[in-house]
Specification:
This protein is an alpha/beta fold. The chain has one domain: TIM Barrel, CATH 3.20.20.150. The chain has helices at about 20-25, 40-50, 70-90, 105-120, 145-155, 165-175, 180-185, 220-225, 240-255, and strands at about 5-10, 25-30, 50-55, 95, 125-130, 160-165, 190-195, 230-235. Strands 1-2-3-4-5-6-7-8 form an eight-stranded parallel β-barrel, surrounded by four helices. Helix 8 links the parallel strand 7 (about 190-195) and strand 8. The protein binds zinc ion. Zinc ion binds next to loops.
Length: about 260
Amino acid sequence: MTKISIGGKLYSKNYELFEIFGKVYDFIEVLIEPDFNINALVDAVSLAKKPITIHCAHQHFGFNPGNTKKFQITKKLLDNAILAAEKFNSPTIIVHPGFEEDTISSQQLKNNTIEFFKNCFDKRLVIENCPYYKTFELTKYSLSTPKDFSDIKKAVPLKLALDFSHAISSANCQAKPPVSFIEEFIKLKPCLFHLSGIEMDSQKDSHNHLFLVKNKFEYLNLIKDIQNIPPITLETKYSSPIEYHQKDIEILRKLLNQEQKKI
Ligand SMILES: [Zn+2]
């Protein structure tokens, strides 16, 4: 089995954390904020000495490919992410799907998302499954279920990033068994995973550390035997002590039957 690549997630302005993340993680996934400073980021990344994967700014920054009224801001945020991907040679640019706002119907939401990515297509684009909240601030995304991804993929050749916590919360909000829901997503051949600590009955993701939640992460058995397991980004609280990150990496390698890498 080839060695699994485990990444840590940072924001583009966490300059002071790149060096230490570079010491424990195999790669760093960077979310490009709207007002990011490319030169300062280049300096920080040079201290990390690890490959960079780019995550486009998401809904909290105004990104919504599902709402035609948000085209300009969404396109601008995507252009920033493309610029950063060029600079750091990132093979992937992770984007979020559209979400429900301004009373758009769910079919319209999906159609708009497809149209946006057809117009702004880039072969590095990887779309991430998001939750399906019934009770929280955001109600529905255009990619919350395996079927949503199949529909999108038929129209525009985006790759899939499977966020396990989002899948669990989506399954629970729809009263579906989370493990088989994840299994359906895995059949769609994701090229990257997002992982964080969550309880199996949770309706909301919390970006907790793996060792701080009650979960045996048995769903990781579903990927254990894949010949080349896609990279896994740990989306935990970046500001935690570095030992917390090391502990998560150790747990993850054990769960996937991998030897602990010497640090
Ligand atoms: Zn994301």
